[in-house]
Amino acid sequence: MFAILKLLLLSISSQLNADQGFDVRRHLCTVTRYDVAKDIANTSAVAANNIPNGCTPIHVNLVARHGTRSPNKKRMRELDELASHLGELIREAEEQNLSLEKVPSWLRGWKSPWREKLKGGELIKKGEEELYNLGIRIRERFSELFDEEYHPDVYPIKATQVPRASASAVAFGMGLLSEKGGLGPAQHRAFAVTSEIPASDIILRFHDCCGNYKDFKKRQEPAVDKLKEPVLDEITSALVSRYGLKFTRQDTATLWSLCKQEASVLDITDQACGLFSPSEVALLEWADDLEMFILKGYGNSINYRMGVPLLEDVVQSMEQAIKANEEFQKIQREEPLELPPKPPQSRNWRGSTVAPFAGNNMLVLHSCPANSASKYFVQVLHNEQPIPMTGCNGSDFCPFEEFKEKIVAPHLKHDYDSVCTAKLEEPEQKPASSELSQLFRCLLSLQNDDTRSTKDGL
Fold first, then answer.
1. Residue range 188-222, pLDDT digits in tens
2. So what's the pLDDT on residue 363?
3. How many angstroms separate the CA atoms of 238 and 277, rounded?
4. What is the pTM of this model?
5. Which long-range contacts (CB under 8 A, 24 or more apart) does 92-100 make?
6. CA–CA separation, 390 vs 376, rounded Å?
7. Which 3 state secondary structure label does DSSP give 385?
8. In whole angstroms, what is the distance from residue 17 CA to residue 432 CA?
9. How many angstroms separate the CA atoms of 219 and 143, rounded?
10. Rounded to an integer, what distance in angstroms lies between the CA atom of residue 452 and that of residue 442?
C-alpha cells in the first residue's frame, strides 16, 4: 500500500500443527478472507489500552484492499481448462484399465462452478460484508470523529475505478455512515466516492502507472517461476503416487488455485484442498508468499519507492488536520532481508496476514495537549491491530515530528517520476541457491495488480 509499511511486519508464526486442527483457509496467501486471517473480536480494546491518558484521536487515514472477490477471467479460463484435462486423465486411466479407487469421487466429471460466468473478479457478498463491518467498527472505535455532519471534504472516500474497489468503497461508506441519514429502515445517507483516471492515478494505482515497475515484474516473473518449480514438482510426484493419475506440474498449480478459490469464496475445503496434505499446503503457501515477497513486497526497492505519492498524501492530510485542530483551539535505513524461510521453519512474511482480502492499514493522529514533549502522536494499525515502529524505538505511538523525520523523510528523497520513468541500471543477477538464501533489497508494498485500495481520510 505505502512505503511506511516496511516497518510493520507482524511476527506471526507459520508453524503448522495438524493435531490441533488444520484449517486450510488460514493458508491461502492473499486469497485469504479477512475474518479468517485475524480475530477481530477484541481489536479495539487492545489498541485502546496503548493510548496514553489525555490523548484523543483527531484524524484517521485508512487504506484498505477490496473485499473477497470471485476469480478473475484468467483464473476462470484456467479452471475450465483444468476440467477438460481432468476428464482426459480419467479417460486415459480407464482405457489403460487402471484402478480409479483412489481418485476422489468429486473429481470425476468435475466442472468449474464459474464455467458459465462471462466476467469475473467482482466483489462477492462476503466481500461486501467485510468492508461494511469494517466501516461500522471504525465509526464505533473513533466515535468522537463522527459527531460532525457529513461532508465529502470532511469524510472523503476515494477508490480506484476497478469495480470491486469502488463497490468496496460503497460498502465501507454504508457501514461508516449508517444511521447517519434518513434513507430506508437503516437510515442510510448518500455519500460521495471519488476516483482518479486510472492512467494518472499515482496515489492508489501507482503500480499501473509505473513503467519501470512493469518492466521489473516482467523480467522477474520467469525467475520466480523457476524458484517455485521444485515445490510444484515435489507435490506433483506425491499426487501422482497418491491418486494414480498422471498430473503435471501445471495441474498441481491449477488445483492449488482451485483450492484457494473454493475455500475462500465457497467455503469448500474437502475437494481440491483435500487433495493436499497440511505439509504440502504449507509448501504451496510458502511458494505463493515467495512470489509476493519478490514481485510485490520486500523483493526490490521499486516495490515501495513507487508508493511515495500515497505516503505524501497521507502525511499532508495529517498536517492539515493538525492545522485545523490548532486553529479551532486558538527510515529507517533500507536494509536487505533474506527470503522467507521454507517450512517447517517459522516466518514473519505471510500473504494471509499481510494482505488478505479487505486487509487494511490505518494511521491515527492523536492530540495530546497535556504532553510536554509533543502535542501530536501517530498510531499505526495493521488490520486494526497496533504495530510497533522501529523508527520510533519500537513504540506504536510515535510523536508526529519524529514520525515525519525518521520514518517518512527517508522515502521522500525519491521522486515518483524518477523512480518509474528514469533509466535504471540493471542489477547483477545472481543464481538462486538450492537453499534460496540470496538477499533481496527490501521494503513493503501491499499494493499490487490484485490489490485495489479504498482510502478514507477522516
1. 999 999 999 988 999 999 999 999 999 999 999 99
2. 92
3. 10
4. 0.79
5. 92/246, 93/244, 93/245, 98/244, 99/244, 100/244
6. 19
7. strand
8. 30
9. 48
10. 22
